[in-house]
Amino acid sequence: MRVFYAEYGRLVYVVAFRVLRDHALAEEATQQTFVRAWQAADHLDQERDPVPWLATIAKRVAIDIHRREARRYANSLENVLSDDPAVIELPPDLEVLDRVWRVRRAIDDLPPEEATIMRLQHLDGLTHTEIAEKLGVALGTVKSRSHRAHTKLATALRHLQEQA
Amino acid sequence: MSDQPTNEELRMLDELLADTATWAEPRAGLEDDVVRSVSDAPDAPRRPRSRARVALIVGGAVAAAIAIVVAVVGTTGRTQDAYNAQLVSTKVAPAAHASAGITRARSGFHVTLDAAGLPALTPGEYFEAWLKNAAGAGVPIGTFSSGSERVTLWSGVSPATFPIMTVTIETIGVGITSSDRIVLTGVVHAH
User: Hey, is B85 helix, strand or coil?
Assistant: First the structure.
C-alpha cells in the first residue's frame, strides 16, 4: 500500500482538493479513496493503467463529501453574504477533474528543471526574467524549457480529449 | 494532427496551471493515515477474509507501464514451491528492470535476481531487496552492490504472503527499514 500510495497519493489528493478546496476534507477523501480502492481491487483490469480507475473513485468520494458538507450549511444560506465561507461552490464536472489529474501527472513526469520552471511561472507567478535570475540561468534557457514543458503538458491534455 | 498545441489547448492548459489545486501537495503524514485506514478497514463483504489477499503494486515506467495485481492465497494455506517476478523501473531509476526466480528450500526461499540498468551507487550506498506484504510490512532478503550480475538472495518469509518485491538504495548507518528510494518493484507470482 505504501508503494501504491507513493505513486498515486498525490494524484488522488489533487483530485480531492480540486473538488473540496479544503486540505482537511481532501485528506479525508484521500483516505476513503484508498480504502475503497483496496476493497474493490478485485474489479481491476490488470492490463490497464489504474489511474483512471483510481481517479474515478476519488471523484465520487470527494463529491460525496462535498454534498455532505453542503448539507451541513444548508440552513444558514438564507442570510449570508456571497463570500461567506458557508457558501459552497458546486463541484467541478468530471471532465475538469480528469484534466486536473492528467496535467498534474504530466507535470510530475517532466524533467525536474522543466517542472521547476512551470511551478515558478504558474504557482509563484514569476516572469521568465525573474525565473532566470532566481535560477541563475540564461533567459533563453528559461524560455525554451518553458515552451518545451507547455508543449508536453498540452499534448497530455490532447490525449485526454482524444480518449474522451 | 500537428505536434504543436493549438491556442485552445494552451488556453485550457493555462487555466489548469493557474488553479492552485493542480499544484496541491498532501502533507507527509497522510501516507501513514492512509495505510492505517486501509489496515483498519474491513474487506468488502462479498469476499471472505480468509481467502483474499490483495497486493497493489506499481511500476513507474515512462509509458505508464503500471501494474496492479491481485494475488489470492488459497484457503488451504499450502505454499507454492516456485515463484517468479518481473520487476519494473521507478522514477528513481527509469532504466532499471529485472527478473527474479524464487524456489522453496529447506532453509527458506532461494531467490535469484537478474537486474539491469540499475543506477551507479555512491560510496556508502548499497542495494537491498525486500519482500513486502499487502500492508507494506517489509522483510529484507539481502543486500548487494552490483547492478549488472545475477544476485543470490534468501528470504525467510514466503512470497505467498509477502508477494511484493522491491529493491531499494540504502545508505550505511541510516536505519534498518526500507528507504523510499525504490529502484525496482513488482509482484511475485506462483508458477
Answer: strand
| pTM of the full structure | 0.55
Cβ separation of A7 and B135 shorter than 8 Å? no
ipTM of this complex = 0.80
- Phi/psi at A62 (nearest 5 deg)? -65, -40
Question: Which of A34, A49, A119 comes nearest B37 by C-beta?
Answer: A34
Report yes or no: A155 at the B interface, CB cutoff 8 Å: yes
**Cβ contact A69:A25 at 8 Å:** yes
CB within 8 Å of chain A, chain B residues 82-111: none
Q: Positive or negative CA dihedral for A19, A23, A24, A27?
A: positive
Give CA–CA dist A3/B58, Å, rounded: 7
Q: Which residues pair with B188 in a beta bridge?
A: B85
Contact B32, B136 (CB under 8 A): no
All residues of chain B having their beta carbon less than 8 Å from the beta carbon of residue A112 are none
Taking the CA of residue A137 and the nearest CA in chain B, the distance in Å comes to 23
Chain segment A82-116, per-residue pLDDT in tens? 555 544 555 667 778 888 888 888 888 888 888 88
Taking a contact as any Cβ pair under 8 Å apart, which residues of chain A between 110 and 129 contact chain B? 118-119, 121-123
Measured distance CA(B53)–CA(B69) in Å, rounded? 10
Q: Which of B90, B70, B66, B84 lies closest to A47, judged by CA?
A: B66
* Cβ–Cβ contact A100 with B under 8 A: yes
Identify the segments of chain A with pLDDT beneath 50.
86-87
pLDDT digits (tens, 9 = 90+) for B19-28: 888 988 888 8
